[in-house]
Amino acid sequence: MKGHRMLVLLLHAVVFGAWAEEACTRTCPTACACSSTERGCSVRCDRAGLLRVPAEFPCEAASIDLDRNGLRFLGERAFGTLPSLRRLSLRHNNLSFITPGAFKGLPRLAELRLAHNGELRYLHARTFAALGRLRRLDLASCRLFTVPERLLAELPALRELAAFDNLFRRVPGALRGLANLTHAHLEHSRIEAVASSSLLGMRRLRSLSLQANRVRAVHAGAFRDCGALEHLLLNDNLLAELPAEAFLGLRRLRTLNLGGNALGLVARAWFADMAELELLYLDRNSIAFVEEGAFQNLSGLLALHLNGNQLTVLAWAAFQPGFFLGRLFLFRNPWRCDCRLEWLRDWMESSGRVADVPCAAPGSVAGLDLSQVAFGRSSDGLCVDPEELNFTASSPGPSPEPAATTVSRFSSLLSKLLAPRVPVEEVANTTEGPLNTSLSDSLPSSGVVVSGHNTRFLLGSGFLLSVVFVLSMD
């Protein structure tokens, strides 16, 4: 009995599949390809050279692809009545106008792609009035100047909006009140600010991309209604400062990207609510100062990017009391590797989560990596900074011009006398660490060997004064 039932089910599947395939292909438009899949009838009309929408589609169509044709206009009920259609793609056409009601007859449409229609420029407020089940809308690269206030209010089920690469100057007001929207892509437009009212009512928003715009200002409390936000991208904008309450309420945020702006400091107040933050990008700014305790609440941080800034020092107090165990990226900064960075060098050695911290100062360690710097100790055990290379330490202060000229000429003559005749091995640097020396240390104390003779003349104080006197008489 069981085997008989399985055979009946198998025959039913075969018969139904054959019927579905026949129904899908029976009314397939010319120049299109239709096939039955697990998700229903799929109609492929991409790259078919179409200048208008075909007059008829299979009634069972679940997906229609009209990408890369020459469509310019969508009239009312442009696709007839297709009760099973869930996905419609019209990307890379020449659409310049969509009649309100063009999508009537598509009651189950869940995904609509209109990207890369650069002549569209404008959408009527009632364009999507019939799409009550639409979940994904793609309006990228349509050169839109604005989005009518009521355009998206007709889409209560909308979850994802892609509207990047348009000509917006502000966050579209049509987004306000979209309580079910979870993902918004607004990058590569011309947005100049995120106002305190821009994102009101967006309580389920989880991902917001505003990267590569012209944002100069984020108002205090701009994200206060976005308590579910997990990923916020504000990189590659024009931000030079942020208010203390810029990110107020973002307690669930996991990724914050502020890289590629013009920030000069990192304030402690910015990250006060972000206990769940995992990735923080502050790279490619002009940051020269990090406030004490700026990262103290970021106990879950996996990576902190501070590379490409103007940092010379980074205090341990910026992380206390809870120092994170993630990766720290610090390259391309003019680090001053003195005792204030000893803690960082020790952490580099112990954790292995920091690398590439090149020293720009002091001169005795410039060019070395912080991991190679050896800090000295005083008699009472305190850290001692690496000494500066100082070639003018013996000079008490600025000298009058004649004296400076005399010393310069004397040094020139002395170098001509000494340089060709001193064996290389006498002046070679054989130390393995950074060299801390002065000009007087580089001169041989025993004398000068005259070419062709074995006689050694001592450079006593009388000889030095005589040379200076002779030169000064010139």
TrEMBL record:
Domain of life: Eukaryota
Leader sequence segment: 1-20
Family to which this protein belongs: Belongs to the small leucine-rich proteoglycan (SLRP) family. SLRP class IV subfamily.
LRRCT domain: residues covered: 333-384
InterPro entries in the cross-refs: Cys-rich_flank_reg_C, Leu-rich_rpt, Leu-rich_rpt_typical-subtyp, LRR_dom_sf, LRR_TM_domain-containing
Single biological process term from Gene Ontology: visual perception
Subcellular location: Secreted, Extracellular space, Extracellular matrix
Predominant place of localization: secreted
Record-given protein name: Nyctalopin
Keyword Repeat: yes
PANTHER family in the cross-refs: ANTIGEN BSP, PUTATIVE-RELATED (PTHR24369), INSULIN LIKE GROWTH FACTOR BINDING PROTEIN ACID LABILE SUBUNIT (PTHR24369:SF213)
Gene3D superfamilies in UniProt: Ribonuclease Inhibitor (3.80.10.10)
Pfam families cross-referenced by the UniProt entry: LRR_8
GO CC annotation terms, alphabetical: dendrite; plasma membrane; postsynapse
PROSITE patterns linked: LRR
Keyword terms, alphabetized: Extracellular matrix, Glycoprotein, Leucine-rich repeat, Proteoglycan, Repeat, Secreted, Sensory transduction, Signal, Vision
